[in-house]
Amino acid sequence: MTATSVVTTAPHKVRETRKARKRREGSEGIKINWWLTSLLIVLSLTIAIPLYFAVVTALKTPDQLGGTGFALPTRVRWENFADAWRLTDFPRAALNSALITVGAVVLTLLTNSMVAYAIARNMHRKLFKGLFFYFISALFVPFPILMLPVAKQAAFLHLDNQIGLILLYVVYGLSFNIFIFVAYINSIPRELEEAAIVDGASTWTVFWKIMFPLMAPMNATVGILTCLWVWNDFLLPLIIVSDPRGATLPLVQYVFQSQFSTNYTIAFASYLMAMAPLLVVYVFAQRWVISGVTRGAIK
User: What is the Cα gyration radius of the chain?
Assistant: First the structure.
């Protein structure tokens, strides 16, 4: 080996040695928090075990429900899903739930964000500060106290239908949404709005062109929470919707329960069918959700 080759290969070996040392030191510096890992495993089991129980129950026949219920079905009965589809009139109920959910989410994002923006940027005024605490105090009022008056008022105003249900979801979500919207808006620098106002932008333009796009991470959070709440809610549609043709999925699933018995196999099949649309929405929307959360962390 010549001197030239030694000179040219030595720096390369030195660089490889340094990289190997850095990788070794980095791997040695990583410490696993076993307490936190164990907690995450336990919490994941609280979701995985009920989901497993729901799946195996939906695939069983009624005579296989003995024992602990966790055993795999000896004979898979796919007819449970067909029976659940027929007994609940699944297409109609799913369409009702979808229309109500989409309407509630869109109207919630458009209205709640505007109210929160007005309160957040005028918190120094007594009126807006009082409104903020007024909305927050509504979080501590149990819904059963308001249930009967709301039902009577909705019937009196002829809002005992899907439209009235959407409006009630927007109103009842206002308190919590304002609470988290205001906190997020206060983290956005006011200099962005002031620069737009100097350029001649109105308050309406500032909100829709600057603030609303910057609120995308929080809009994603509020949209997801509202979607889950409206899609799975049972009590509010029960007391508001008077027309059986406007029943949502949680309402029609009540057909499997009677005073003396419950058809568990078909009921759990309908539960899985009702859960499927939300899973599909999450699969297609997770990229935007994760992107929104990342942008919020960067801000």
Answer: 27
User: What digits encode the pLDDT tens for the residues 81-128?
Assistant: 998 899 888 999 999 999 999 999 999 999 999 999 999 999 999 999
Which residues on neighbouring strands pair with residue 262, listed in sequence order? 257
CA neighbours closer than 13 Å in the CB half-sphere of residue 275: 10
The amino acid present at 294, given as its one-letter code, is T
pTM equals 0.80
**How far is residue 53's CA from residue 55's CA, in Å, rounded to a whole number?**
6
Q: Which of 247, 291, 296, 272 is nearest to 80 (CA)?
A: 272
Rounded distance between C-alpha atoms, residue 268 and residue 262, angstroms: 11
Q: Which residues have CB under 8 Å from 212's CB, separation 6+?
A: 113, 219
Round to whole Å and give the CA distance between 275 and 246.
19
Q: Who's near 229: CB < 8 A, 6+ residues apart?
A: 169, 173
- The DSSP code for 262 is B
Q: Are 271 and 84 in contact (CB under 8 A)?
A: no
Taking only the tens place, the pLDDT of each residue in 58-81 is: 888 888 887 677 788 888 888 989
